[in-house]
Amino acid sequence: MADTVRGAEVSQRSAAERLTSLDGLRAVAAIVVMLYHYTQRYRERFDADWHPAFSYDGQFGVLLFFMISGYVITLTTTRLRRPRDFLFFRFSRLYPTFWACLAITAILMLLAKAPLTIPPPSQLLLNATMLAKTIRRFMHWPDSQPYVDGAYWSLEIELFFYAAIFLLLITRQMNRIVGIAIAMVTIGAVDHWLLMAGRPAAPSPVRWVLFFDYWPYFGIGIALFAMKNHRQYRWPSVLIGLSLLRASEHVAANVLGIVEPGKVTQDPTTPLNVWVELVKVLGCTALFSAAVFDRLPPLRWKIIVAIGAVSYPLYLLHQNLGYIVIAKLHGPLSLPTHVTIGAAIAVAFALATAVSIGIERPTMHLLRRLYLRWTHHVAPPAVVSGLAPSVPRTAEDRQPL
After folding, report:
1. Which of 36, 98, 248, 313 makes an SS bond possible with 355, Cβ 3.0 to 4.6 Å?
2. Better-predicted residue by pLDDT, 275 or 367
3. 315, 30 contact by CB (below 8 A)
4. Distance of alpha carbon 258 from alpha carbon 251, whole angstroms
5. What stretches of 227-314 adopt beta strand conformation (E)?
6. Cα-atom radius of gyration of the chain, to the nearest Å?
7. What are the two backbone dihedrals, phi and then psi, of residue 148, each rounded to the nearest 5 degrees?
8. CA distance to 185, 216, 261, per residue, from 182 (Å)
9. Angle 59-76/272-292 helices, nearest 10 degrees?
C-alpha cells in the first residue's frame, strides 16, 4: 500500500513537471512571436530603415502554441463530466481577458495615434466576437485588415479546434481522436493537392473554418498525448508522420507564396530557403516532444515559467503596444535598436503581468466558482471524453491560448 501511495505521488509530481515544461515552452513561443513583430514585421509595416541585428520567423511560435493546445486540450477532456463544462471553461479562460486586452489596445492606439490607425467602433465590436475574419468571409465583406491587432488571427483557429473537440465530446468520440485527426490531416492534404492542380476543392471560407492548414500542428500535440499518457504508439506515430508531411507542404507553400496553381507571389533567393523552413518545422516538433517528455530542464526555470504564466495576455497585448513603444523611442529619441526592443519587451511583459494578476486570474476563478455553484458540480476526474484521466486537477488553470 505504501509503495502504491509513493508511486501515485511520483506520478503526480512528474505530471506537474510535464505541464510546467509546457508552460516554459509557451514562454519560448511567445518570445519568438514578440521578436518577430519587433524586428522583421515592424520593418515591413512601418520603417524600411529599421534594421535590428537579428530577425525571427514568428510563425513558428504560433505553430508551437497550436501543438501545445493539441496536447493540453485533449488532456483537459479527461477531467470533464459534461460537454458544456468544456465550453464554459474555455469561455472563462479566453474571453474576459481578450475583451480586457482589446479595450486596452484600443485605448493605447487612440492615445498614441502614430504609427497605427485608430480602429472604428464597428471593427472593435467585430473583433470582440473573436471571429472577425470568419464573419467577414461568410458575409463577403472586405477582410484586408480584419483585426485590431494582427496577433488575433490565431485565436480563430483555436476556437475552431475547440468546436471540433466539443463536437467529439457531445458525440462521445473522443476516444477516436487520433483516427479523426489522421482523417482531417489527410483531407487537408488532398484538398491542397486539388487546389494546386486547378481542380474543384473546398471553398476558401470552408477551408478556413475546418483549419486544414493547421490540423497537422494540433495533430502532433494529440499524438504525443496518446503516446505519453496512454502508451499508444502505432496510430499516433502515423499521425505524426502525416502531420509532418502536411506541415512541410504548408510551410513550403508559404515560403514560395503559392496561393493558386502556377502563381508564386514571392521570389526566394534560393531553394535553400524552403529547406531551412522545413528544418524549422522538424525543430519545433523536436522541441515540443522534448518538453512533453520533460527532457529540457531550462523550461522549468522560474523566469521562463513566469513568462509562460502570462503568455496569453502577453500574446494579446505585445504587438501594437510594442509598435507604439518602438515608434516613440526610436524616432524622436534616437535610442539604439537593441535598447528600443528591450524597452518594448519590458513594457509588454509588465502590462501583461498586470492584466494576468488583476483581470485574467481573478475573473476566471470567479466565473468558474459561480458556474460550479450553479451546476452543483464538484468535478472529480470523470470521463465524458472516453479518455482515462492522467494528470492531477491542480493543473486545471494552465491552459494554452
Report:
1. 313
2. 367
3. yes
4. 10
5. 258-260, 263-264
6. 21
7. -65, -40
8. 5, 9, 26
9. 30
- Each domain of the chain, given as residue ranges in start order, spans 7-376
3-state secondary structure of 259: strand
User: Quick one: which of 167, 125, 161 has its CA closest to 146?
Assistant: 125
**Is pLDDT at 8 greater than 50 in this prediction?**
no
Count the alpha carbons within 13 Å of 395 in the hemisphere toward its beta carbon.
Answer: 26
Q: What is the pLDDT of residue 183?
A: 97
Give residue 250's pLDDT: 79
What is the 3-state secondary structure of 29-48?
Answer: HHHHHHHHHHHHHHHHHCCC
Closest CA to 297 of 20, 59, 89: 20
| C-alpha span between 210 and 202 (Å, rounded) | 10
pLDDT in tens, 337-396: 889 999 999 999 999 999 999 999 999 999 999 998 888 644 444 445 556 554 443 333
Longest Cα–Cα distance in the chain: 70
- d(C-alpha 308, C-alpha 94), whole Å: 16
DSSP tag of 258: E
Burial letters for 44-82: b for 16+ Cβ neighbours within 10 Å, e otherwise? eebeeebebeeebbbbbbbbbbbbbbbbbbbbbbbbbee
102-134 burial code (b ≥16 CB/10 A, e <16) = bebbbebbeebeebbeebeeebeebbeebbbbb
- The set of cell numbers assigned to 315 is 500574446
pTM of the predicted model, to two decimals?
A: 0.87
What single-letter amino acid sits at 275? W
